[in-house]
Write a structure and sequence with these properties.
With 223 residues, the chain is an alpha/beta fold. The chain contains eight helices and seven strands.
């Protein structure tokens, strides 16, 4: 565990520290102009694999939680965010039916195997309230070639269809299954003006030109 945490710390720092300010600006737009359609101000939200907290720091919500193995994550989280430092496939220290939303971005591909993913999906479903949502973004392997493996810690390869199937097997209902959403990565990528980001989000036809990440929104059945 210690060596894994040290490795995570080094990888995150090398990969994200240079663009941290830009990434935060992008996520301010994404949370307040796109993802707020699925997150109400009164909700309890968990950011799964929170990284440096770009999503959870910016999304308006009544209670915010973040989970990650990286020991550097708490220093990056806002004061109103509760941090859970643990393996996501182990039992979550949360009651059943206690979360309105579980959000995860560019995380499932870093899990060691699909069994770990299955266990994580089960924990999320247990903790979600009936009708609660799991929102997942990730690189879509069907639109990527060698660049998918440019990241040393990529292990599980997924498409929107395969992740949707895994979710349905675990009892989720699929609401959104979008094969192309965001571009592949902000690592070593141009830092566009924020009005370009707003334009991109507002024009789904642009997603089909540049998008290489899927967006899947699934729901825990109400009964």
């Amino acid at each position: 565990m210690a060596s894994t945490q040290q490795e995570l710390s080094k990888i995150y720092h090398r990969r994200f520290i240079r663009t941290a300010a830009y990434r935060n600006k992008v996520w301010q737009i994404l949370t307040r102009e796109f993802f707020n359609r699925w997150v109400a101000p009164a909700d309890t939200v968990l950011d799964l694999g929170c990284g440096y907290g770009e999503f959870i720091n910016n999304i308006p919500a009544a209670r915010k939680l973040a989970m990650d193995l990286n020991p550097d994550a708490p220093a990056r989280l806002a004061q109103d965010v509760e941090f859970l430092h643990q393996d996501c496939s182990a039992p979550w220290p949360l009651p059943d039916n206690s979360l309105d939303v579980v959000f995860t971005s560019n995380f499932f591909e870093h899990l060691p195997d699909k069994e770990c993913l299955n266990q994580t999906l089960r924990q999320a479903q247990r903790c979600l309230k009936p009708g609660g949502r799991l929102i997942a973004i990730g690189p879509n392997i069907k639109y990527l070639h060698g660049e998918y493996w440019d990241f040393y810690d990529h292990h599980v390869y997924l498409t929107e269809t395969s992740l949707g199937e895994a979710m349905e097997v675990e009892g989720y209902q699929i609401d959104v299954l979008t094969p192309r959403f965001l571009p592949f990565t902000m690592v070593e990528a141009p830092e566009y003006p924020m009005f370009f980001v707003r334009l991109y989000i507002a024009c789904p036809w642009l997603w089909w030109l540049r998008g290489k990440q899927f967006l899947v929104v699934a729901r825990k059945p109400s009964r």
